[in-house]
């Protein structure tokens, strides 16, 4: 029988407004410390708040007007694609330049000191250079914009899901993110530059689609129609897709990523626009990189990471290899769960002890120095020398103690940007690495990557995961080949590297459909679709048994009321009556200004949406009364700011009629109630909410089961759902947080505590 | 200003039940004749009808039970994939065998008579062989299962959209479809075998997921939980995806096809399962074909159509070619619109005059004979001789009047299965065709294909479209090359053939996202993504200006209440009050059996869903009363059949309590009311609907705008939506048909007449 195993009651019960991220979710049964910085999240409303003003505007608009809007949407998506592609291009070139310069300097230094002795000086040089880059990136992130830390994928996932973490789509965040990611990759950390592209794409989209920048205080008076949550969300999902597309050269993968993470309601035209943005983004990147590389017209660099081409003929797989691949998938799931668990405990530790910005920067510096030291030691003690082939010319190959015409094989893995290391693991000839090198590399890089994720630097986890997986995958391939030395089919360890990379990445991030398509597009080979899919599936199943995905862990640690795809399977016996908040603060259709100001100023409740009721004067009972609309805090604030008051004598005080434009201008940074001054006289005035409220909010009866309420929320993107009794009186209000509390644990339905403390 | 330009009032206003396909939509302003066969459509309910029985079952189920259900879903998807792959394999092998035999016989005959004279005998032989095949296929379709005609894609689109055309997912339909498509392809018609695979996949899914076959009267007592519309729809979308996947070797394309056409509510796990079915399907096909071709383990036949591999190096495109591609897209749109218009008029003609089965078979025979005659004539008068190269060995090359060591180039296009013709247009060396040959071929094949689509044979339009496009695309390539003889980049007309094929197909079917991905996967080359996308986009925009897509035309001609993605843009001023049906037939919570039987038997209204109301005995007013539930005709029929009556004395007559199983056993072929005998005594009994009705139907206030109602329908898959007033009394009911009536025409909002006459 389903039952709630952990029920935590709470004292103060708020609405979804100002969801503070300082909750204490019960994850694995242990109390989690509060994050040091309070992150106050905002629920987004993707249901169209249609009020009379909006309907009037729509009615005035001609079919031609709608067509123009549609064209603007396409133009915006094109712009998003171009800008995202340009940002990716900028990051790529800067990283190449800086890393190339760094490796060149260190290489010359090492070569000099290999002969004369005293390689410890090279080590110090390497560590200092790394630390210098990481210092810049760390300071930017820790002091200027902490939200730019990490890959930004959890934040974008939350945004598309309907929870906005403040400052996540601001211009400043974008600038810090871009500089930060350049610094951390050039600084030699075990990070990738791909994840942050998704965040960058989202910020670009949020900026372009609004036709203004609040940070730069410029309003281009364009695209004003799109200044609301629904439209902005659609563009942000296009931006995220464009980011994926530029990062991996995977436009279809980008579209699927956006859909998998965000779009609850699939719309053909929207998807098509998202695809357009993705295509433009990868094309722009390709175009400019081809010019930069001096080969204009050669469209062979569709993404930041280029896995190189897997030709079907040389690396075909056979169906009897599929069980082997599946075992690798299981291994990937196990290693992924280990990675996530370690990172989870590390994050708890960081929340508890490493919360001051200067401490965070110091930790980042420590990691940078340790990374350099470990890499150097591994290379120094490695005696895996390989002959220099023609394919090595573009790499930074180190000779070190090897004979002339040979290079140190460990150095191709460590002394390189991670993207290039992945590519060499995929494509180098059999025999380019010896098993010992790969084993040691996997081990050290695993712990380095795990330590690095969550530092106060902008960095992605995709490439390190791929690199770890490619290393142990190639190792598997070599071992298999050594068991069956006569059979030619095991000849190519590159394909095992690919499968290993997929397994490890799948085990860590637990993405499925989109990741399959991304991998297929990045390898440029459709025939690997089936094994990659199976591997990702197995990795997810095995991994989920032990631990959640990395992004989900970080989302949960922030106490975000994240709504999954469906209500927990065993929740049919819960009804709206049990999940709703009650009693609800309602307003009258014509309400006293003083009452409104008082309710909005009440910080203990901090409600965000208010049912509007019409109370018959005759009835003596105070509450409840008949529902006739729903109004948001943000709308009330705009009304108060513009003083749309009615004197008791019913003549309008306000000079001009409030228009939709006034709401759009204030979007999305509505001022707090404290900044609005209302005089004592004005408090006695009345406000007529009729024109501004949504006159037809969705309601459900109180016996509606949780799955039905959930579906309504998820499919329509609701923020508030009114629960009404059989004569349409308000008896409760369901918000996102009320639904996000329930989840299916190992022992049945569990209830998380997501409320403020 | 938005306004309804064409408003047609109707006399009898029914519910969505028994939607007869004999409406007279006003398409292009002309009255359309009724189709001869009445097709009575059924709306599907994708909103979970949760009643007390269902909730009790869910409550009894343990978390482990839900896990088992989830595993069964995966198993079913695997089975769907395997079976669909096997069917594709069977079709492929049969077509190859039969067509190979046919072409061999004719070739020998032609060779014989080329020397001795009297080729007219060969022509007659060709025509007779074609007619023989088409006769078998035509009789099967016209006499046994008319629903198996055509590609079945419009029918599957309707099913996924929520309208079931009867017999569309039956086993008999599948058998007729498979045999029919083998006959029509082997019979040399201008058709493909790919479209029908989508329908076949859907039927397989509908059968497997229900764990029984009503046609074979076998119930395996499995998967009983899935016997309802929502679950079945999910599996059918997986089946359709598996069909696409097997047809084109495009698993991702299959998933996107299903989503584009069907899934209004995107669910991660569902999508993942659909992807699984697609992957298994293409793998199964690949596996068995590789064994059949004697090369086990060689996984290079992922689909029925194999476009051959476009290697990036040899056929790279340059960005300055993109405008040229876009012009070809516009041409494709124009030609597509022309094709659709011709086919539209032809279909009208057929509905009017060719409605008897024997006439339909005769038309099919005529087309088969004409196709043979035209092909023969074209080959006979062609003097385009080309030298035999090594790549020709697998084709049926005709020497005819060419010199020894040469073959007739026109014959590679006509004397071949269409799939092989497409492949040769894509990949043969420059110079393999002369422009005259291609021009004539395009022209004749265009009209043949247009005439063929809509015949009473199972046949797809994908391959003929691709073939027409590839022919004129290659022609464009050759012409361009002749303008710039010195430049090497125009050297390969194959890539222009590919772009032309995409443009023509896009112009005819107007699919966008999924078609791009299908084309990319079928060519095995990701770099062509951008040009193919742009071409499809332009083709759609240009085509839509003149005429709708082919499938949409055929859906409209059947008066299906098809819901598009969004409500028309200019419909914000319409409210639920204006679109709803009113007054509504309601039942009391405890209702007299006689009343129920009378209402259900009333053929003039033919309602399908009934609000259940609780009427206070005190109130004298008859109607309306408070809403307390919603019950479906099908549920009432099961109740009547099992005689779940309550005597007036309130003791139960029924021996056993009705269980969910009884409803599931009756699904989906609920008996008609006429077949249920209710005695005069029983008519006086009462029925208590409380346990069986959905106690929490979704409701909207009467002022809700059409777009909001529409979104609710589309996102939740509703069939009925109750419109309630401010005290929760029923004042109307919105059904799918009420919403499908409105669409945006050239002059603003138009209202179609979809009602029965």
TrEMBL record, chains A, B:
Gene Ontology terms, cellular component aspect? lysosomal membrane
Q: Which keywords does this chain's UniProt record carry?
A: CBS domain, Chloride, Ion transport, Membrane, Repeat, Transmembrane, Transmembrane helix, Transport
Q: Which GO terms describe its molecular function?
A: chloride channel activity; chloride:proton antiporter activity
* Sequence segments annotated as region (Disordered): 1-34
SMART domains to which the protein is assigned, alphabetical: CBS (SM00116)
Cross-referenced SUPFAM superfamilies, in alphabetical order?
Answer: CBS-domain pair, Clc chloride channel
Where located? Membrane
Task: Tell me the membrane topology, using the record's own terms.
Answer: Multi-pass membrane protein
Q: Which Pfam families match?
A: CBS, Voltage_CLC
What are the CBS domain coordinates in residue numbering?
693-751
Q: What superkingdom does the record give?
A: Eukaryota
- Enumerate the InterPro entries for this protein: CBS_dom, CBS_dom_sf, CIC-7, Cl-channel/antiporter, Cl-channel_core, ClC
> Where does this protein have compositionally biased stretches of type Polar residues?
1-12
Q: Which residues cross the membrane?
A: 74-95, 123-144, 174-192, 235-258, 270-292, 322-346, 358-381, 436-456, 462-484, 496-520, 526-546
Q: Which family does it belong to?
A: Belongs to the chloride channel (TC 2.A.49) family.
> Could you tell me what this protein is called?
Chloride channel protein
């Amino acid at each position: 029988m389903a039952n709630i195993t952990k029920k935590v009651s709470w004292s103060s019960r708020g609405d979804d407004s100002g969801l503070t991220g300082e909750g204490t979710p019960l994850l694995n049964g242990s109390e989690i410390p509060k994050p040091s910085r309070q992150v106050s999240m905002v629920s987004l409303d993707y249901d169209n708040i249609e009020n009379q003003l909006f309907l009037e505007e729509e009615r005035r608009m001609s079919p031609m007007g709608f067509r123009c809007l549609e064209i603007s949407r396409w133009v915006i998506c094109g712009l998003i694609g171009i800008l995202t592609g340009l940002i990716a291009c900028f990051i790529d070139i800067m990283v190449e330049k800086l890393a190339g310069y760094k490796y060149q300097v260190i290489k010359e230094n090492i070569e000099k000191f290999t002969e004369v002795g005293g390689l410890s000086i090279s080590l110090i040089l390497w560590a200092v250079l790394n630390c210098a880059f990481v210092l810049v990136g760390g300071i930017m992130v820790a002091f200027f914009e902490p939200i730019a830390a990490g890959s930004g994928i959890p934040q974008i996932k939350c945004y598309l899901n309907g929870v906005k973490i403040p400052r996540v789509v601001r211009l400043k965040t974008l600038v810090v993110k871009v500089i930060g990611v350049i610094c951390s990759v050039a600084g030699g950390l075990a990070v990738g530059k791909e994840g942050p592209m998704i965040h960058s794409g989202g910020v670009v989209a949020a900026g372009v689609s609004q036709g203004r920048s609040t940070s730069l205080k410029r309003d281009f008076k364009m695209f004003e129609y799109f200044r609301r949550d629904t439209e902005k969300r659609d563009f942000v999902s296009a931006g995220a897709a464009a980011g994926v597309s530029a990062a991996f050269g995977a436009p279809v993968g980008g579209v699927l990523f956006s859909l998998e993470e965000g779009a609850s309601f699939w719309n053909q035209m929207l998807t098509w626009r998202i695809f357009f943005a993705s295509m433009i983004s990868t094309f722009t990147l390709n175009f400019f990189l081809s010019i930069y590389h001096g080969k204009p017209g050669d469209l062979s660099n569709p993404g930041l990471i280029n896995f190189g081409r897997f030709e079907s003929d040389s690396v075909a797989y056979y169906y009897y290899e599929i069980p082997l691949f599946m075992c690798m998938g299981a291994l990937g799931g196990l290693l992924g769960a280990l990675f996530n668990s370690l990172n989870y405990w590390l994050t708890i530790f960081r929340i508890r002890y490493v919360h001051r910005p200067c401490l965070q920067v110091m930790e980042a510096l420590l990691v940078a120095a340790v990374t350099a030291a470990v890499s150097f030691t591994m290379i120094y003690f490695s005696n895996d020398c390989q002959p220099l082939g023609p394919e090595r010319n573009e790499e930074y190959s180190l000779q070190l103690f090897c004979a002339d015409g040979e290079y140190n094989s460990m150095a191709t893995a460590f002394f390189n940007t991670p993207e290039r290391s992945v590519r060499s693991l995929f494509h180098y000839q059999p025999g380019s690495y010896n098993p010992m090198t790969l084993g040691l590399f996997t081990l050290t890089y695993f712990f380095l990557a795990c330590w690095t994720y969550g530092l106060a630097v902008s960095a992605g986890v995709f490439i390190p995961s791929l690199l770890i997986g490619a290393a142990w995958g190639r190792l598997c391939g070599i071992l298999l080949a050594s068991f069956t030395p006569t059979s030619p089919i095991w000849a190519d360890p590159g394909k095992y590297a690919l499968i290993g990379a997929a397994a490890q990445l799948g085990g860590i991030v637990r993405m499925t459909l989109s990741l399959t398509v991304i991998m297929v597009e990045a390898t440029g080979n459709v025939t690997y679709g089936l094994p990659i899919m199976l591997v990702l599936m197995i990795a997810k199943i095995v991994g989920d048994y032990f631990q959640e995905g990395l992004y989900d862990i970080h989302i949960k640690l922030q106490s975000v009321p994240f709504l999954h795809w469906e209500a927990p399977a065993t929740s049919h016996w819960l009804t709206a009556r049990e999940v709703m908040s009650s009693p609800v603060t309602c307003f009258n259709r014509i309400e006293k200004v003083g009452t409104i100001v008082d309710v909005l100023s009440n910080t203990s409740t901090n409600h965000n949406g208010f049912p509007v009721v019409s109370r018959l004067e005759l009835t003596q009972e105070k509450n409840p009364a008949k529902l006739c609309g729903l109004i948001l805090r943000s709308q009330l604030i705009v009304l108060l700011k513009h003083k749309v008051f009615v004197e008791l004598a019913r003549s309008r005080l306000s000079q001009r009629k409030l228009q939709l434009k006034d709401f759009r201008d204030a979007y999305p940074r509505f001022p707090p109630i404290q900044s609005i001054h209302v005089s004592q006289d004005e408090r006695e005035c009345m406000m007529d909410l009729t024109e501004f409220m949504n006159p037809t909010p969705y309601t459900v009866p109180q016996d509606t089961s949780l799955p039905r309420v959930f579906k309504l929320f998820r499919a329509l993107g609701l923020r508030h759902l009114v629960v009404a009794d059989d004569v349409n009186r308000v008896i409760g209000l369901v918000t996102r947080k009320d639904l996000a509390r329930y989840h299916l644990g190992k022992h049945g339905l569990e209830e998380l505590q997501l409320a403020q403390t």
